[in-house]
Structure formats: structure tokens, C-alpha cells
Amino acid sequence: MTDTGKPLLRVLQGEAVWPPPLWLMRQAGRYLPEFRALRDQADFITRCMTPDLATEITLQPIRRYAMDGAILFSDILILPWAMGQSLEFVHGTGPVLGPIRSQTDLDRLDPKRVPDATAPVMETLTRLRGILDGPDTIGAAQGGRTTLLGFAGAPFTVACYMVEGHGSREFEATRGMAYADPLLFDRLIARLTETTADMLVAQIDAGAEAVMLFDSWSGLLPPSQFRRHVIAPTRAIVQEIHARRPGVPVIGFPRLAGVMAAEYARETGVRVIALDTGADMNAMCGLLPDNVALQGNLDPLLLLAGGDAMTQEARAIRDAMKGRPHVFNLGHGVVPATPPEHVGELVRAVREVGP
Ligand SMILES: Cc1c2[nH]c(c1CCC(=O)O)Cc1[nH]c(c(CCC(=O)O)c1C)Cc1[nH]c(c(CCC(=O)O)c1C)Cc1[nH]c(c(C)c1CCC(=O)O)C2
Prior knowledge:
This is Uroporphyrinogen decarboxylase. By secondary structure, the protein is an alpha/beta fold. The chain has helices at about 5-10, 35-40, 45-50, 50-65, 80, 105, 115, 120-135, 140, 155-165, 170-180, 180-205, 225-245, 260-270, 280-285, 300-305, 305-320, 340-350, and strands spanning about 70, 85-90, 95, 145-155, 210-215, 250-255, 270-275, 295-300, 325-330. The chain has one domain (about 5-350): Alpha-Beta Barrel (TIM Barrel). The site of coproporphyrinogen III has 21 residues, from strand 3.
């Protein structure tokens, strides 16, 4: 099958496809027993940096559910780690980093390290693309339908973890720094903008057919800060990718951005906007240019609950988007307690079209 035959890639390029292609954020993860089995073999960073393991983990949900998209198994915090920031994933706590609070801290980071440090990630993408499009593996079993997605965190969300040094609900140290030392914060965002664009171009060269920018905490910012730290750097990254690798779609996920999501979609140049659970997809359609595709947005907790309520809501989202370029997905990641059978039911419900 040629590239243009992949349903997800067609939608990412602006075409309406029925029924819509689907994949799920965090589709490779703790809810899968086969993921938990590999989890004991190595710590999280080692799993991301070992092509054998990262390739296998990426493919687990593709084997089970024949998803239309395979998203690279990695993390948004691999970029600061590759620049030299200390990073550890602590069981039960999440990521812990040596916080960046001064120009001296920022100067210690070295963007020149990124290509070497992320070489195993690129190797993983190249292997995945070979398998997904290859003749005698799961690629063939699924008719080569699966699109390979690369990703990065968007600068603001990555800066949240870099400055705070750990996860948070409010990221007060980060948002405080943006006001108290705007030049330092701008320099951090600028450094992330450049390194993120370079890393995504490298992911495309290694085999990614589209890339996604996760801006999970963009919704914490008021409009003026949202324009400065979310829209402007995202636009710069999208322009750089489009200039250097024309035609490769970028998916943007400005989580919790509310009404600012419309301005984001218009101003950044993303081909696809991923909407969170709280967004009204229909209302958003009216605010978007016709050539911007939508992705989303079933509540991950409805997937956890399963049953008729889930399949009905999934079909309602799907049917409301009929005729528009739409990628079916969740509004945020699969939660770890989700029964894998519910994912199977969801995939069947979205793919079954009535007479
Ligand atoms: C904010 C953020 C991070 N990472 C990511 C985001 C943006 C999306 C979102 O808002 O969820 C993105 C991400 N993280 C991971 C992927 C892989 C691809 C996928 O399956 O979606 C992607 C795309 C793997 C992961 N990243 C992480 C795990 C769990 C690691 C484990 O326990 O094995 C996985 C599968 C760890 C991680 N990584 C991060 C946190 C806060 C944590 C700890 C919380 C948690 O455990 O869920 C940072």
C-alpha cells in the first residue's frame, strides 16, 4: 500500500475519511499486561533508549487493536535529558529533574548533545517504519495501514517540568519565573523552540510520517502569556518543519486551552488540532479554518468505565464529525486502570458503520 493509502495520514493531510481512523494517546502503557511484563526489565529511560524495547512497546497496541497510528514510545522529557538535565522517573512520584532556575542552570544545558543522545530514538523510528510498511510482519497483516507518529513536548510544557523539577497541578514556580524574570524564561523557551524543531526534523528523517506537539499545561496561561509562550513558539516550530520537510503534518495539542484553542489553530499553522475532553468539537468546528483537521476527544474515564455509555458517546463524537477531517482519539491519555477489553470494544464501535 502506498503512503497515500493510509487512512490516518490522509486525514492528517486534510481529507475526510469514513469511518475515521483512530489511535489513542498513551495507547502503549501500564493498562497492557504485555507492557507491564517488559517494565520490570529496565527503568523507563532505558526502555526509551533501547531500540529493541522501545520498538516492541510501540507495537504492542498495534498488534492487539490494529490502531491506525503507532506513536513512538518515548517521553517529552527526553529532550531536556538529552541536553544534560538530570532526570529520573521515580515510582509513584513521576519525573524528577534538577530544576532550572537561573541563567547559570540554563547555560549548563548543551543542545549539541541532542543528536548523539537521541540517536537510539531515531534508530527506533527507522525500525518501526520498516516493520509497519514491511512485507512479512504486522505491517503486511494490517495491509500497511498504520501511520508512524513522532512527537515532542511543546516548549511551554517542557519548560514547566524543567523549571519546577517535578510534576505539579499549577506549576507555580514556572509561571512565576515567566513574570519575575521574563528574559530568562524567554531564553529557555527559545532554546526549547530550536532544539524541538531540530529533533522533530530528525524524527521525520528517521521515519516519522507526522509529528505531534504535546502542550499539556498550556491551559494554565492567561491569553497574553498563551500567545507569547504557546502560540509564538509553536508557530516557529511548525514553520521550521514546513520549510525543511514540506508536507509533513504537525498535530498540536494545546490541552485545556478552552477558547484559545481556536486562535492557536488559526495562528500556529498546525494541520491538525487535538482537543481535550472539555472541548465541544462541534462548536470548535465553527471557529476553525476548514483545512484544519480535528483529533479527539472521548473522555479517558469513559473508556475506563466501558459499556454502552462508552460506545454510544464514541459514536456520537464520530458521527458529529462526519464529513470533516477527523481523527478519533481520547481527550487525554489512557488511564492505567483501563481494562484492555474496553479498548477493543471502543475500536470496534468506532470502526462499525451502520447500514
Ligand atoms: C506531560 C507529559 C509527559 N510525557 C508526555 C506528556 C504529554 C502528554 C500528557 O499530558 O500526558 C507524553 C508521553 N509520555 C509517553 C508517551 C509515549 C507514547 C504514548 O503511548 O502515548 C508520550 C507521548 C510515555 C510515558 N511516560 C511516562 C510513562 C509511565 C512510565 C512507567 O511507569 O512505566 C509512559 C508510558 C512517565 C511520565 N512522563 C511524564 C509524566 C508526568 C510521567 C509520569 C506520570 C505517568 O506515569 O503517567 C511527562
